[in-house]
Amino acid sequence: MIAYHHTLTVIDNDSPAQFALQKALQLAKKTKSKVTALKIEHPYENLLARLGLIPNNALDPMLFVKKLLAKYQRQGVEIEIKNIEKTKDHIALIKEAKAADYDLIVINNRHRNAILNEFIQSCEAHLLRDCELPIMIVGNKSWQKKGHILTALETSDSDLEHSKLNQCLLDDSQQLATLLDNDIHLVNCYQAENWSMSVERKKNLITDEEQKMQHWSRLLSSAKDYHLTDDHLHLEQGLPDHVIPSVANQCDANLLVIGAGEHHGLISDLKGHTSSAITDEIKCDILAIKPQIH
To answer: What are phi and psi of 243, to 5 degrees?
Structure first.
């Protein structure tokens, strides 16, 4: 499980909302951990100001940041601010993550246009691909008490390492559910074996209903130690980038917990289309867990 001793996050230079910083501080308060926040100077970010296109009395996001930090410091949260000169967010975060002992990175979900993601990778995509730490991608939705955490499992593969990752996802979900006073829902999606276009049907090919029952049995097995009722288990036929956002929205989930960086499986390797679709379409926050940390 995530230790929650030291969280790394960023200060949003463009917005006073500071969703990533706020949620990192909320978690730190609950877990009595330290937060390090990077204030990154982006290349050309002061161009508009230098050209006189931003008035001198424009709202300074740091005014809100200072009040927010002071509030949590009074409540006992240890906070460190690091100023980083002219670089991209993902480069600064990856470099800093390697320089100290962090447990988690919390970043903003930018909800970028899908076409743009095809040509320029987002900060989220870079971190999911290149960073070994768990990544929490957050938006403007507040965490509700008595809410729901949705955990996406892959049950079609019986590989031992994959089963271990599923177990870790469940353990991390249980830990967060306790911290946030939430309950847990599980979601699994599968693809039916379509033989309608085959010249010759394969021998021993199971029916769609038999496939569904197999996946349902595995989902029940995953949930048994967590005492989840059937209405907290969601099994859908379809692609993960369609099924997962749909179920998350139906549940009105606070948070989606999902595995990232695997090399196989339907919800594997959050690097390309699936990760872009989920991060751009989903309304709740996302916690992506890497198998190598376990």
So the answer is: -70, -50
258 membership: H or E segment, kind and range: strand 255-259
User: Can you give the pLDDT at residue 84?
Assistant: 93
Q: How far apart are CA 103 and CA 131, in angstroms?
A: 12
pLDDT recorded at residue 17: 84
The helix (run of H) or strand (run of E) holding residue 223 is helix 208-223
Encoding tokens for residue 145? 């008490």
What is the model's pLDDT at position 272?
45
Could you give the CA distance from residue 209 to residue 244 in angstroms, rounded to a whole number?
21
Question: Alpha-carbon distance 22 to 29, whole Å?
Answer: 11
Residues of the chain with pLDDT under 50: 57, 195, 197-199, 263-273, 294
- The number of residues making up the chain comes to 294
Measured CA to CA, the distance from residue 254 to residue 27 in angstroms comes to 14
